[in-house]
Structure prediction request, 473 residues.
Amino acid sequence: MRVCLIIEGAYPYIRGGMSNWIQQLICSMPEVEFVVQSIAVDRSARREFAYEIPENCVEIEEIYLQDDDYVGSGIQKKIHLTDEEYEAFEGLIFGETVDWESLFQFFGKREVSLNALLTGKDFLSMTLNYYQKNFVSISFTDFLWSMRSMYMPLFSIMKSRPMEADLYHAASSGYAGILGSMQRALYHKPFLLSEHGFYTREREEEIIKASWVKGVYKDLWIRQFKKIGDCNYRYADRVTSLYEDGRRIQTEAGCPAAKTLVIPNGIDPERFRDVPQKDPSDSFINIGTLIRITPIKDVKTMIRAFGLAKEKRPDLKLWIMGGSEEAPEYAEECRSLVKEMGIADVEFTGTIRPEDYIGKMDMLVLSSLSEGQPLSILEGFTARKPFISTNVGNCRGLIEGEHDTWGPAGIVVPLMGVTSLANAMLRLADDAQLRRQMGEVGRKRVKNFYNGTEIMERYRRVYGEMTGTSGEK
Prediction:
C-alpha cells in the first residue's frame, strides 16, 4: 500500500505534537510505503529535517504557498479560460457555490502560470464586475491586488505536482485538505482527512483579530476559508477527530456525520519509564512546559502567572522547553518580558529531548489559546506528572476524564487567566501528595485509553477499509 501524507507547516522540518504524531504513524506501519507532501510558506523557510526519516518514507516533496512562478514565456502570455472555467473561477472567488471539479481539472491537466492567470484579462474582468456591484466606495487597485494575494496560496497548492497513491491522508484541513481533495478528484483514490484542530473556525478567529486585514477584506477572507473547509469535507471519504466534541464541531460545520469517526492521540505508556528523575538535592519546585514558543501557546500569560506565584513561593523554577525558530520575534519578546518583570529562575532550554527533562519536573503547564488534544499532556501523564492547562480543545477531557471516574490528573484554568494559573501553580507546589495522586491518575488514564500501539492499529484498520485491503500487518 502506498499512502500519500499531506502536511502543512510541520513534519519533517518542525518539531511538535503534529509532527510527533506523523512520525509515530509512519513508524507504526513499516509495511506501508509513505510519501510526504510537506507544505511551507516559501523557500526561505529553514528546511532541515528535525526527524530521522523512517525507511518506509520513500519520498518527501516540498510545496510552497508563495513561490517563483516560472513557466515558458509563451505559456505565460496565453491563458484563456473556457466559459466553464471562467464560471468555476468566478464561483470560487465571488460566488456562493464552487465547481471544484473544473478547477481541479484545470490545474491538474494544464501547465499554468499563476502570474499569467492573476494578471490576465479573465481575472481582471470577473474582479471588476464584482467590484462594480459591491465595492465601488473603495480603491479598485487595492481590491484587485487583495484578490490576487488572497488566491495566490490556494492556486499555488492546486498547481503543485500531484502524486499517485493508493490513499491520500491529509493531517489537517485547509490547504493540505485542498491538495488531498484535488488528488482524490484526479486519481479517484480514497481520501482520509484527520483534523487535530478546526480549520474554518480557527481561521475566522485569526482574521477577526488580524491587524493586516481590514474592513470588507475580513469578510472576503473568511468566506474563502469557509469554501476551503466545505471542499475538504465534500471530497474526504472519512474524517477523523480526536474527541467526541470535535466530531460534533465537524458535523455542525457541514461534514456529513456518516463520514466522521473519533481516533484520539496515543502514546507509548512506557516511553518515560526509565527517564532521569529529579535530584534529591534540587530544592526547586520545577514547573515545565513542553511547547513550540509561538503566540498561540500564550507563553506570556504563563510567564506573568509564574511571576505572581514566584512572589509567594521563591523556590519555584520555570522551564520553558521548546524551539523558537517558528516565531523568533515572539520568543525574544518572551525573554524580554522575563527581564522586564525581573523574574528569577526562568530557563529557556531551546529544543530538547523530553526524555532528558520531563522526569525532573514537579508539574507541567500548558497556557495555549487553542489546542486539539495535546500530546504534551499525554507525555506528562506517561511520566506521572500532574498537568495544569487552559480550557481549550480536549484538555479538560484529558485532565478530568471522559471515560472514567478516577478524578482529576491536574487543574484546568481559564484562557489568559494569569491569577488562576498562578493559583494552580501554588496549589500543586504546596501539596506533594496531591501531585503524586494526580500523576498516578494521568498515568492510569494513558494506559487504559490512549495507548499508542492500539491507536495506531485503528489507523491501520481504517487504511485497510478505505483501500479494500485487510488492514492487517
